From TrEMBL:
Organism expressing this protein natively: Amycolatopsis marina
Positions of the ABC transporter domain: 12-242
Bilayer disposition of the protein: Peripheral membrane protein
Cellular location(s): Cell membrane
Signal sequence interval, chain numbering: none
Family to which the UniProt record says this protein belongs: Belongs to the ABC transporter superfamily.
GO process terms (BP): response to antibiotic
Lineage: Bacteria, Bacillati, Actinomycetota, Actinomycetes, Pseudonocardiales
Domain of life: Bacteria
Protein name (record): Lipooligosaccharide transport system ATP-binding protein
The UniProt record lists the keyword Transport: yes
A cellular-component GO term for this protein: plasma membrane
A single GO molecular function term of this UniProt record: ATP hydrolysis activity
Record has Translocase as a keyword: yes
Database matches in InterPro entries: AAA+_ATPase, ABC_transporter-like_ATP-bd, ABC_transporter-like_CS, ABC_transporter_ATP-binding, P-loop_NTPase
Length: 314
């Protein structure tokens, strides 16, 4: 035994977890531990291995190597028992467009062997939760992207899961729809549902995740809370400077000693420093005239850039 009581035992635990597709190794021996009641994130660009890891946890893709337990069980032996206590929100909405909002929820409830009376009641609750009550008897086809996403999440809750997996939950949504979805996820977490989220949006990871791993090329590059990762791998502030096209390369050397480190991106130079404003004053004192400048706090995007030398969305 590892000294965990049942309540403390990780809800998901992976050790040296590997996923291969033929010769290609999508997940290269990662360790992870998700605790009950937390929102845990996989942050990384497309192709980092996030979805492959999610599919192993969701018991729809067997691991190639390593150990994995989900809800204290082995996905290969106990897949159906695990899936009965889990909700999955896939990257692409797979709703039935010909059915109404209400029917989508009720039909899905029947897959779990829930009674008609129970699914009827549950559908009413979930439509309210997803703010879709007024669209209950409308077909799904004409709904907005944000509504479809909320319905997909509502549907994944029909069996009252303890664990909810969300793969890129807000890709393609406008800012308003994203914030509404984040609010719904906060509510679920406050009810004690454990969330596992993959995303390539650093603001989403910062907003939603108590703890996260940064994934790149099938490996975990770092792990911690958003604020810990920023403290560990970045500075308090970042000064962004944009110069006229063609000027940038020449300027980089003359500002290098104004910051702890600098990053030269195609369209701007980033200066990492505890005091962005005073760095900007020194830039001006050297007679440099950026087209625009911005002082901001460090984000997970900066952490990713430091760890990998690339931006999250390329």
């Amino acid at each position: 035994m590892d000294g965990h009581t049942d309540d403390e035992a990780p809800l998901v635990q992976g050790k040296a977890l590997v996923k291969r597709f033929g010769e290609f190794e999508a997940v290269k021996g990662i360790d992870l531990e998700v605790r009950r009641g937390e929102a845990f994130g996989f942050l990384g660009p497309n192709g980092a291995g996030k979805s492959s890891t999610m599919r192993m946890i969701a018991c729809v893709s067997p691991r190639s190597d390593g150990d994995l337990t989900v809800l204290g069980m082995d996905p290969e032996r106990d897949g159906p028992r695990i899936r009965a206590r889990m909700g999955v929100v896939p990257q692409q909405d797979n709703l039935d467009n010909e059915l109404t909002v209400r029917q989508n929820l009720q039909v899905y409830g029947r897959y779990f062997g829930l009674s008609r009376a129970h699914t009827r009641q549950k559908a009413v609750e979930l439509m309210e939760f997803a703010q879709l009550s007024e669209r209950a008897d409308d077909e799904v086809e004409p709904l907005s992207g944000g509504m479809k996403r909320r319905l997909t999440i509502a549907r994944s809750l029909v069996n009252d899961p303890e664990l909810l997996l969300l793969d890129e939950p807000t890709t393609g949504l406008d800012p308003q729809a994203r914030h509404l979805l984040w609010d719904r996820l906060f509510r679920l977490k406050s009810r004690g549902v454990t969330l596992i989220i993959t995303t390539h949006y650093m603001d989403e990871a910062e907003q939603l995740c108590d703890r996260l791993v940064v994934m790149d090329g099938g490996r975990i590059a770092a792990e911690g809370s958003p604020s810990e990762l920023i403290r560990r791998y970045s500075t308090r502030e970042v000064l962004e400077l944009r110069f006229a096209p063609g000027e940038q390369a020449g300027v980089a050397d003359s500002v290098r000693n104004l910051a702890d480190r600098i990053e030269v991106l195609p369209d701007r130079i980033l200066l990492y420093t505890a005091e962005g404003e005073s760095a900007l004053e020194q830039v001006h004192a050297r007679g440099l005239r950026p087209v625009s400048s911005l002082v901001r706090r460090s984000t997970l995007e900066d952490v990713f850039l430091k760890l990998t030398g690339r931006t999250l969305v390329e």
